[in-house]
Write a structure and sequence with these properties.
Number of strands: 5
CATH topology: Rossmann fold
CATH class: Alpha Beta
Number of helices: 10
Radius of gyration: 17 Å
Helix content: 40-55%
Order of helices and strands: EHHEHEHHEHHEHHH
Shape: globular
CATH superfamily: SGNH hydrolase
Strand order of the largest sheet: 2-1-3-4-5
Structural class: alpha/beta
Strand content: 5-15%
CATH architecture: 3-Layer(aba) Sandwich
């Protein structure tokens, strides 16, 4: 399986996409690694969900999944790529496990992109319902083992992230940071693609304040979603 879509070996843990000077030149026809007829599945929580339709697969919501589909489809109309969004607002790793057969394996995707973890942190603070880093990693590993055992799919793991919009949000980093490390570890363990979104947003706030990218530090603005989409397309470009 061609793994050139890595941004950098996840084990390093410092991979990033330069924020300044980005262009779409890398995404000229023929440069994208998603082949004609393949299916791309986006999985995650509300960041991925972004208001997607539950009845019409062509309505991918208003976030990075839709933007990524639109850009790739416009640049590569000759490739009949299907994009699916199965993100569900509020989900944690345990929720993905509960619906993984129906919402991942049964769809037989060629590419699986996963962004999950911020609710595994958030629930500790708003509902006193924590998920330990160990439980998060174990559940996430189970998802990847199921993909490995049932699908011949390229996998992209996206770091969960938090932006420093308030001290309250920043305090959550003590819970999220070990989960970010778990994602990096799993990406290396499963030879998966790795998208360092937390690092990317840290670089982005050097140019515009945190609330420009995510008003509440969690849910991206349109600009924040576009930044994720740009990084995602770069990750699957040669």
């Amino acid at each position: 399986m061609d793994r050139r879509f890595f941004l950098q070996a996840a084990a390093v843990g410092t991979a990033s996409i330069p924020f300044s000077g980005q262009t779409w030149a890398a995404n000229e026809p023929g440069k994208i690694q998603i082949a004609d007829g393949q299916t791309v599945l986006f999985q995650g929580d509300s960041i991925t969900d972004a208001g997607r339709s539950r009845e019409d697969d062509s309505k991918l919501g208003g976030g990075y999944a839709m933007m990524t589909s639109a850009w790739i489809s416009a640049q590569h109309p000759e490739r009949k790529i299907q994009f699916l969004n199965r993100g569900i607002s509020g989900n944690r790793v345990v929720d993905l496990e509960a619906r993984w057969k129906e919402d991942c394996l049964d769809l037989e995707p060629d590419w699986v992109s996963i962004l999950i973890g911020v609710n595994d942190t958030w629930r500790r603070y708003d509902r006193n319902d924590p998920t330990t880093a160990e439980a998060y990693e174990e559940g996430y590993r189970d998802l990847l083992k199921q993909i490995q055992g049932h699908l011949n799919a390229n996998v992209i793991l996206c770091e969960p992230f938090l932006l420093h919009v308030s001290e309250k949000v920043s305090q959550m980093r003590q819970d999220l940071d070990p989960k970010i490390e778990a994602v990096r570890k799993l990406a290396a363990e499963f030879d998966a693609g790795f998208l360092p979104l937390d690092t990317i947003f840290k670089e982005a706030v050097e140019h515009r304040p945190p609330d420009f990218w995510a008003k509440d530090g969690v849910h991206p603005t349109p600009a924040g979603h576009a930044l994720i989409s740009q990084a995602w397309i770069e990750a699957v470009s040669e």
